[in-house]
Write a structure and sequence with these properties.
The chain has helices spanning 2-11, 16-25, 29-35, 44-58, 63-68, 75-88, 90-99, 110-124, 201-209, 216-231, 241-251, 271-284, and strands at residues 128-133, 147-152, 155-160, 167-172, 185-192, 235-238, 257-262, 290-294, 302-308, 311-318, 327-328. The chain is of the alpha/beta class.
C-alpha cells in the first residue's frame, strides 16, 4: 500500500508522527475506506495528512496540539485523536480531498534551482524567462530574490541576493559550485490548474498544512516569504500548460531565453501527459531553443535539458537531491 511506502521512504527520518500514523493506517479498515475516496491523481498520504492538519485547526480539535508540538506527542494517543477527528468530520474531509490539491511549493528547492538557472544565464548571457508548470503560489519564480548559504564540506558558498531577508540553507554533497553570482530574470510565468494566493488566508493556511509538523523551519520560512512573494512581479495563469505555453511563445516580444521547469509535479502526470509535454517542447524548439529543468518524469533525478530543433540534449543530471531541498549533489 502507498502508505507503507510513504512511511519507509519519505516519512522515516523526516516525521516520526507521519511515519507512525502511516504504519497504523495499514491495519485500520475505516481509515483505509476513507482514503479510498481520494482522487487517484493526488499523492494520497500528503493530501490526507494536510487535510487532517487543516481541519484540526479549523475545528480547534485537540489533535491540532499534536500538530503544533509533535515532539511531545504520545504516538498511540495521537492516532486515537486522528481516528476521532476522521470519524467526526468524515464528510468535510472528503470535500477537502476533492477541492484541494497537493501543492507544496517547497521553498528550499530554490537552493538547487538558483545555481541551475545561474549556470544557464552565464552560458548564454541572455536574460531568462522562467515558465513553471505546477507553480502553486509562484514562490520558486522568485529564486533571485533570496540569499543562499550552501555548505560544501568545511566551506560555505554564498549566492543570490545578500540583502534579502530570506536565507535558504542547503548542503551540496557533490562537486563545488563553480559559478558566479549572476542571474537576470526578465519574465516569470507560473501555470497551475489551481493558483494559490498567499494573501488569501484560506490558501495560506492550506500551504502551511501541507508542511509536515516537525518541519518548523519550513513553516516559519513560508510565513516570512509571504510578503516577498506577493511583491514579486510575475504572471500566474490557471489552465492547461499545453495550451498556455505555446500561446505565450507566440505573443512574446523579447529575445529572452525560455526555461520551462517543474519539480515534484510530473509524478502526478499520466504517461500520456508526459509524452504530450515532451512533444510540445520538441515542437516549440523548432522555432526557439528551450531549456527544460525537471524531475519525476521517469526517475527522481533532477535533469537539465537543452532542446534545439526537436533534439533533446541532456546537459546535467543531479542525483541524490532531497525533495525538501535540504541537500543536493552538484556535478
Amino acid at each position: 500500500m502507498i502508505f507503507k511506502r510513504f512511511a519507509e521512504l519519505e516519512a522515516k527520518g523526516n516525521s516520526v508522527l507521519y511515519s507512525y500514523w502511516s504504519n497504523e493506517i495499514l491495519s485500520d479498515e475505516r481509515l483505509i475506506s476513507l482514503i479510498s475516496k481520494m482522487p487517484q491523481s493526488q499523492p494520497k498520504p500528503n493530501l490526507f495528512f494536510a487535510s487532517v492538519q487543516w481541519l484540526a485547526l479549523q475545528k480547534k480539535h485537540e489533535l491540532f496540539q499534536v500538530f503544533m508540538h509533535p515532539e511531545a506527542a504520545n504516538l498511540e494517543e495521537s492516532f486515537r485523536l486522528l481516528k476521532q477527528l476522521c470519524s467526526e468530520y468524515e464528510n468535510e474531509l472528503i470535500q477537502l480531498f476533492h477541492t484541494r490539491l497537493v501543492q507544496t511549493n517547497e521553498i528550499n528547492r530554490a537552493s538547487y534551482l538558483y545555481p541551475i538557472f545561474a549556470e544557464i544565464y552565464q552560458s548564454i548571457k541572455k536574460p531568462l524567462t522562467l515558465i513553471e508548470i505546477g507553480t502553486s503560489a509562484g514562490i520558486l519564480l522568485g529564486v533571485d530574490l533570496f540569499n543562499y548559504e550552501i555548505t560544501e564540506g568545511n566551506n560555505t558558498k554564498i549566492l543570490g541576493d545578500s540583502s534579502s531577508d530570506i536565507t535558504i540553507r542547503s548542503i551540496n554533497n557533490g562537486q563545488p559550485l563553480n559559478i558566479s553570482n549572476e542571474l537576470v530574470i526578465q519574465n516569470r510565468i507560473g501555470i497551475d490548474l489551481n493558483i494559490i494566493q498567499l494573501e488569501h488566508e484560506d490558501d495560506y493556511r492550506w500551504m502551511q498544512s501541507l508542511i509536515w509538523p516537525e518541519h518548523k523551519e519550513r513553516k516559519a520560512l513560508l510565513e516570512k516569504i509571504k510578503d516577498v512573494n506577493i511583491n514579486c512581479s510575475k504572471t500566474l495563469v490557471e489552465g492547461d500548460f499545453l495550451e498556455i505555453i505555446p500561446n505565450y511563445l507566440e505573443i512574446r516580444n523579447d529575445d529572452s531565453q525560455i526555461v520551462i521547469f517543474h519539480t515534484h509535479v510530473a509524478n502526478q502526470f499520466s504517461n500520456e501527459l508526459k509524452e504530450s509535454l515532451l512533444t510540445m517542447i520538441r515542437q516549440l524548439s523548432r522555432n526557439v531553443p528551450l531549456y527544460h529543468v525537471y524531475n519525476n518524469m521517469y526517475d527522481t533525478n533532477l535533469h537539465v535539458d537543452l532542446i534545439k530543433q526537436g533534439s533533446i540534449i541532456n546537459l546535467k543530471e543531479l542525483k541524490n537531491t532531497d525533495g525538501h531541498g535540504k541537500y543536493f549533489s552538484w556535478n
